[in-house]
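Hi again,

Forgot to attach this to my earlier email, sorry! This is the prediction with zinc ion bound. I've pasted everything inline since the attachment limit keeps bouncing my files.
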Amino acid sequence: MRDAVFALAHELIRRRSVTPDDAGCQPLIGARLAASGFAIEALPCAEVSNLWATHGSGDPLVVLAGHTDVVPPGPLENWTSDPFEPAVRDGRLYGRGAADMKGGLAAMIVAAEFFVAEHPGHAGTLAFLVTSDEEGPARDGTRRVIDTLMQRGIRIEYCLVGEASGRERAGDEIRIGRRGSLTGTITVRGTQGHVAYPDEADNAAHRLLAALGELAALGWPAGDPQFPPCSFQIANVNAGTGADNVIPGEASAQCNFRYPPPLEPGTLQQIVAAVLARHAPRHELAWRDGGRPFLSRAGALRRAAVAAIERRTGITPVLSTGGGTSDGRFIAPAGAEVIELGPARATIHKADECVALADLDALAGIYTSTLSALLAPPG
Ligand SMILES: [Zn+2]
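Structure tokens for the complex follow:
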């Protein structure tokens, strides 16, 4: 399987699929899966490419999920070799998307090909859900496909996302949940004036900074102990005209929460609104929900993956809920057991992104064993 995974990862990295452009990755994946007997359905939405592919029928429905899009490479002089011309050095495959997540995607596809060849009459359904809109706004990708599946009455039982989850190597850490993300944009109004006449003005910057200072020092409600605590971070602050003799009449800031369940966005929004009302009665507050937190149940998928990792690598994975958001946030609320298991994450979104060939090999084996445990149990 090792050579097959490497060759497919190579083919995917060569395609310059910067969000939301799929650049031909999904047609390649669809052709591969069709040759293995999968039924292929393209579910494009606006400029986003989505692929739904199934093999077998009935329950349980096991979904392998991933994305073909990558983040832009950034300045080319920071790369040792061309980000879209895959290169091997020291046992690693280099290129944009090697770890996030064309390597994991290639390993999932080769594992599925191998599995259906070994078990053509397996139980239940094996499916792929692939999008080209994970790194972008994530509006017309996985979220839309899940909506479509729900309308058809299709229920996902297990979902394995091949995102880069490893700390140092594939299998040493898997994600069983993710924190929620909530972004607030605050605009405070005062009255502009001359700094020499403060009595005739109302400094919006003073009001905003007093509120932000209080928010940054607050203790936020505790959440599920399996998660890192709630984090409030100020990301942007803007005020002033640039002149040193003008009191700003308006000041704005952007802040972001990463919060554990069972906290709700509404609770955090109320706390922010109350602090703002005290310091800056004239304000506007706009919120963007970047994804609700989820914690996946400890079910058969997690047991199968942990057993496969232990057998294949000899390590017992850490079960983690850290890191940023992922498309797991759209799949878990529909009732699926979700885990994220992929290669080491150290170089994702960076220059010289790479994946260890040993990780690709291990993952193909781990994915195959996990599928066998769920869809072709012995006896
Ligand atoms: Zn990713």
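Residues 67, 100-101, 134, 163 surround zinc ion (CB under 6 Å). Residues 2-178+293-375 form a domain with the Aminopeptidase fold (CATH 3.40.630.10).

That should be everything now.

G.
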